[in-house]
């Protein structure tokens, strides 16, 4: 995928050795548990994904209130293609529909949208077109940036960058990632009680703090979000120092 022009400021700013009490400006979430949420209610998996998408929208608005500058959500991984065909097709249709219907509203609210991941088969071409349209429409917005990881895998991102890399340092390599303008997450949250990285932001998350929550993603409330940010603020980040 083509990289968008970099915004002002460094892509991965240095942090002080003692970051105690700082707020998390760059937050990423593994939005896990949609299927289990639906199953517990006797509903089809797609109903869980719809509820999860509603939660993304609600927590995005909370993120603005809570001082978050970038929010990244794990929407669909490169491994998720092994799920039942009906579920995958439903997810593709849901994603396309929600982008078309909700992007104008998010644009009015000042949200800048970016999609990271492989934009190629088997992702439907019409979905790829809608992603590009949403990015073009919102590219000038500055209130908050929403990165949606779709058909994304951390290993795939590194492999794709390595294919284009000829020589240089870490900054040169980073410029070849899906979104060189993305800041390294201060905090990565995972819901549903699982304690795995799941191939998510392997490069960018090298020094991220992690918070694991027991809620299934559709149940992740503003209070849950606030508690996660408070947990982060209580930690001392050293980045290899003392």
Task: Give the topology, please.
Elements: E1 26-30, H1 34-40, H2 45-65, E2 70-77, H3 85-108, E3 111-116, H4 125-138, E4 144-152, H5 154-164, H6 170-174, E5 187-190, E6 209-212, H7 222-233
Strand content: 5-15%
Question: Total helix count?
Answer: 7
**What is the strand arrangement across the widest sheet?**
3-4-2-1-5-6
The major beta sheet can be summarized as: 6 strands, parallel
Helical amount: 25-40%
* CATH top level class name: Alpha Beta
Cα radius of gyration in angstroms: 17 Å
**Stretches where pLDDT falls below 50 for ≥5 residues?**
1-18
Basic shape: globular
Q: What do we call the CATH homologous superfamily?
A: Decaprenyl diphosphate synthase-like
CATH architecture: 3-Layer(aba) Sandwich
Q: Tell me the structural class.
A: alpha/beta
Total count of domains: 1
SSE ordering: EHHEHEHEHHEEH
Number of strands: 6
Q: For the residues shown, what is the average pLDDT?
A: 92
What would your notes on this structure say?
- The chain has 242 residues and is of the alpha/beta class.
- It has one domain: Undecaprenyl pyrophosphate synthetase, CATH 3.40.1180.
- Helices cover 39% and strands 15% of the residues.
- The protein is built from 7 helices and 6 strands, in the order E-H-H-E-H-E-H-E-H-H-E-E-H.
- It has helices at 34-40, 45-65, 85-108, 125-138, 154-164, 170-174, 222-233, and strands at residues 26-30, 70-77, 111-116, 144-152, 187-190, 209-212.
- The protein has a 6-stranded parallel β-sheet, sandwiched between helices.
- Helix 4 (125-138) links the parallel strand 3 and strand 4.
- The protein is globular, with a radius of gyration of 17 Å.
- The termini are far apart.
- Mean pLDDT is 92; it is low at 1-18.
């Amino acid at each position: 995928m083509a990289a968008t022009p970099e915004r002002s400021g460094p892509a991965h700013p240095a942090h002080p050795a003692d970051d105690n009490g700082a707020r998390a400006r760059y937050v990423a979430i593994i939005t896990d548990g949609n299927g289990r949420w639906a199953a517990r209610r006797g509903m089809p998996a797609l109903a869980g994904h719809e509820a999860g998408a509603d939660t993304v929208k609600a927590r995005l608005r909370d993120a603005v209130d809570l001082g978050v500058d970038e929010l990244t959500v794990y929407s669909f991984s490169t491994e998720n293609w092994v799920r039942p065909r009906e579920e995958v097709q439903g997810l593709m249709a849901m994603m396309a529909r929600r982008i078309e219907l909700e992007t104008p509203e998010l644009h009015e609210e000042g949200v800048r949208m970016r999609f990271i991941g492989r934009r190629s088969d088997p992702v439907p071409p019409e979905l790829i077109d809608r992603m590009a349209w949403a990015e073009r429409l919102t590219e000038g917005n500055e209130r908050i940036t929403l990165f949606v990881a779709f058909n994304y895998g951390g290993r795939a991102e590194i492999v794709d960058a390595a294919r284009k890399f000829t020589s240089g340092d870490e900054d040169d390599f980073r410029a070849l990632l899906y979104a060189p303008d993305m800041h390294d997450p201060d905090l990565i949250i995972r819901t549903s009680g699982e304690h795995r990285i799941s191939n998510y932001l392997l490069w960018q998350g090298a020094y991220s703090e992690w918070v694991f929550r027991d809620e299934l993603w559709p149940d992740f409330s503003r209070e849950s979000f606030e508690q996660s940010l408070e947990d982060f603020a209580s930690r001392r980040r050293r980045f290899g120092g003392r």
